[in-house]
Design a protein that fits this description.
Helix content of chain A: 40-55%
Strand content of chain B: 5-15%
Number of domains of chain A: 2
Radius of gyration of chain B: 27 Å
Strand order of the largest sheet of chain B: 1-10-7-4-2-3
Strand content of chain A: 5-15%
Number of helices of chain B: 23
Number of strands of chain A: 10
CATH class of the largest domain in chain B: Alpha Beta
Shape of chain A: globular
CATH architecture of the largest domain in chain B: 3-Layer(aba) Sandwich
Strand order of the largest sheet of chain A: 2-1-3-4
Structural class of chain A: alpha/beta
Helix content of chain B: 40-55%
Number of helices of chain A: 14
Largest sheet of chain B: 6 strands, parallel
Oligomer: heterodimer
Shape of chain B: elongated
């Protein structure tokens, strides 16, 4: 399958390794990854902070950039939620019916990375090996907006060598919330303190999630306190292998046509 | 017309008020303890119903429909309430409602009132107005009584004294109740003893005061009925013992038919207190000769509500049945408690109701007092999409600010405009990424950023930031592509 990668602006700038990991995994599974360099930002920060007018050109840009792609994948749950839940609203607000139609047409082809693997490609074992104690934080947007359910956990449970420990009170927000962390730094920090306390209580070396934005926030406190606990995007765990070479993946519930190699 | 929502117009902005609340260790422990318990009870009680999601959908549909045709249902309610001997008053704002209520009480030359828990009366600051007119209000809901005696403010729409623990309650009772007169020699913080003290204190009020004031959870258009649900029975006392009963009811409390209660009398108690049913469900339709209050009034309050009816998204705000589930589920509320919201309506629902009732003239920090985590929407029994409404309100606030010269020059607006420009072109974005890599240089020490200037300092006051990596993803991709192309040639 040809999969077009929407890396998102902050992953591009701050977390290139996540993008590299996504490419490695998808190619290891036999898919062809394309990257359209015209892409920029989904507009979530603008939209959620109230700069919705300023978001409309970015909606247009996204729709134009990815118009002809069969499958669009992004390793950021919150950016996918932005596209899925808010793009049509932004288009409607701008009074652009044509854009709204284009949005509704493209949205079913946009997948969050773990969603793509488990729900679209039917893969739960990507042949990864990661000998670390890891806890998983279900980010709010993957949990409550995209409803990815246990897709990320299914992928993690199939990782060789991993010691996956449950995060207490996992469904509570880490306090990032985009500009919330800057506009309400005290409350955000208090929320983060609770999250970090739970992470530390697991004894994990790594905290993972499907969103680098939340992980950047959690990292901020873990590092400030010199806890030695790291954050890592789920794609980077899934890209790790015992030998550095691909293992034959297991296709669990998709037909070979849907999930197999091309 | 002047809309007033408690003291919201003069309250501190949320970040400032929250900062003070966060330093109160006792408050934070009390809030966490209480919300943990209520959340668990709610989860169990909603989880046991196979049709819970259907109840939410039905509640949403009934409320949406009612608000769409509110004018018709209000008039239907008025006709039916009058037909049963009740008196209907219409109040455009808080002042009008207060004048109407004190007018009725003064005609009977009464000097005291007993109150059933009513948020709406807090919204219009009825107690202050009564006191100014020489009328003494007695709160009879235990939590409201604690707040009143403690000269405090409610911190939760269902559990007003959620921020206070029993040790603190004992202290308030000791200080404010004539315990000796009530026959209590020594008061401990044992809940039963505290409840007994409150019972003795309130009993004399119930038996002597001749005016009851209530709100209503629902107003049924079809039958002209008002409905109050509660746990203690103190409400039932206020609704049945006095000769005069006045209910102040927001116009959004209407539901079309008696059968609609079937939905809400299931979803409200399970959402609010985690009970299958409220212990006391009082429903009255006008006057019953020889039984209960013989003079019954209802004050239908607008106070900014009609301003929310025009737009579909705003209108959804009025679906609220005041269950408080969104407060209990909110990670922001968990940390700050309710006072930080500066309003009689706290938490996520307060963050959308308070500013909208005031036509976005005050409380502009409230729509930003959320990380948009979505927990409130998940638990709402009438499916108010609170995060969406928060975002919509942010949009209105930004656009209004942008329409002024100073707003245009605000650093946040300038930064957002600059970023919008950069994101418009991948070339500019690549250039900006390169620039950022250079600009971060003075802030990176030992491989980490521990201090950032200006607006961004909010981040680094408690959090480190990782410096930008040497290469962006797009650079890695471009290099890989060119390498591949070379190999193929």
């Amino acid at each position: 399958m040809r999969i077009s990668l929407f890396i998102t602006c902050y992953n591009d700038l701050l977390f290139a390794d996540t993008g590299v990991a996504v490419v490695q995994i998808l190619e290891r599974l036999g898919h062809q990854v394309t990257f359209r360099p015209e892409q920029t930002c989904c507009g979530q920060m603008h939209y959620n902070t109230g700069y919705q007018r300023e978001t409309v050109p970015l909606v247009r840009k996204f729709v134009e950039t990815f118009a002809h792609d069969e499958v669009i994948c992004s390793p950021s749950a919150s950016c996918v939620a932005m596209i899925r839940d808010h793009y049509w609203k932004a288009a409607r607000m701008a009074g652009d019916a044509e854009l709204e139609t284009k949005v509704l047409e493209i949205v079913p082809r946009v997948y969050e990375f773990t969603e793509l693997l488990v729900n679209k490609l039917g893969v739960e074992d990507v042949g990864a090996y990661y000998p670390h104690r890891v806890t998983y934080h279900p980010s709010c947007h993957s949990l409550r907006l995209l409803r990815v359910g246990d897709a990320p956990l299914r992928l993690l449970r199939n990782v060789g060598g991993i010691d996956l420990v449950e995060l207490p009170n996992s469904e509570e927000c880490c306090g990032f919330g985009g500009t919330f962390a800057i506009k309400n730094p005290d409350t955000s920090s208090a929320m983060l303190a609770d999250k970090v306390r739970c992470v530390l209580n697991t004894g994990a070396e790594m905290c993972t999630a499907a969103d680098n934005s939340c992980l950047m926030h959690i990292y901020g406190s873990l590092h400030r306190q010199r806890t030695g606990v790291r954050t890592v995007h789920i794609a980077e765990i899934l890209a790790s292998t015992r030998t550095g070479e691909a293992k034959t993946p297991t296709f669990t519930h998709a037909t070979p046509n849907e999930g197999g190699r091309e | 017309m002047s809309v007033r929502v408690g003291s919201a117009a003069t309250s501190s902005p949320f970040p400032k008020a929250a900062s003070a609340a966060l330093d109160d260790s006792q408050l934070r422990r009390n809030v966490k303890h209480a919300t943990d318990i209520i959340q668990l009870k709610r989860k169990n009680m909603t989880g046991e119903l196979p049709d819970w999601e259907d109840l939410r959908t039905a509640g949403h549909a009934i409320k949406n429909h009612t608000l769409r045709y509110l004018d018709i249902y209000l008039e239907e309610f008025e006709r039916n309430f009058k037909a049963h001997g009740g008196v209907v008053h219409w109040a455009r704002d808080a002042d009008e409602a207060n004048e109407i209520i004190t007018g009725i009480i003064k005609r009977r030359a009464e000097r005291e009132v007993i109150k059933v828990k009513t948020m709406t009366s807090n919204e219009i600051r009825l107690n202050e107005h009564l006191e100014e007119n020489g009328i003494t209000p007695h709160e009879t809901d235990l939590a409201d009584l604690i707040v009143q005696l403690g000269e405090d403010r409610p911190s939760h729409i269902v559990v007003p004294a959620l921020h206070i623990n029993r040790v603190q309650i004992r202290e308030i009772f000791e200080r404010r109740m004539p315990l000796k007169e009530l026959g209590i020699e020594e008061l401990t913080d044992d809940p039963e003893q505290l409840a007994e003290a409150a019972r003795r204190y309130l009993r004399s009020k119930f038996l002597t005061v001749n005016v009851g004031i209530s709100g209503a959870n629902f107003a049924v258009a079809e039958t002209g009925s008002l409905v109050v649900v509660e746990s203690e029975g103190n409400g039932r006392m206020c609704l049945t013992l006095p000769d005069l009963l006045i209910s102040v009811v927001g116009i959004e409390k209407l539901i079309p038919t008696f059968q609609d209660l079937e939905v809400f009398l299931q979803s409200l108690p399970r959402s609010s207190t985690g009970e299958r049913m409220n212990p006391y469900n009082s429903i009255w339709s006008g006057v019953t000769p020889g039984d209960g209050p013989q003079e019954v009034h209802v004050v239908l309050l607008d106070n900014g509500r009609t301003g929310l009816l025009a737009e579909e998204e705003s209108r959804e705000t009025l679906n609220c049945i005041r269950c408080g589930a969104c407060l209990n589920a909110c990670p922001v509320y968990h940390q700050t408690g309710g006072h930080a919201y500066g309003s009689v309506y706290q938490g996520p629902i307060g963050a959308i109701i308070t500013p909208q009732l005031q036509n976005l003239e005050h409380s502009k920090s409230l729509p930003y007092a959320s990380s948009l985590c979505g927990a409130c929407y998940d638990v709402c029994p009438v499916k108010i999409n609170i995060p969406e409404i928060l975002i919509m309100l942010r949009g209105k606030i930004v656009r209004e600010s942008q329409s002024t010269f100073l707003g245009k020059l605000h650093p946040e607006n300038m930064a957002m405009q600059a970023m919008a420009l950069v994101f418009a072109s991948s070339g500019l974005m690549t250039a900006a990424e390169g620039l950022a890599r250079v600009a971060q240089f003075p802030f990176v020490h030992n491989g980490t950023i521990r201090h950032l200037p200006g607006m961004l300092s909010g981040w680094t006051q408690t959090r480190d930031l990782m410096p930008l990596p040497k290469h962006s993803f797009r650079q890695w991709w471009a290099e890989r592509e060119s390498k591949r192309n070379r190999e193929q040639q």
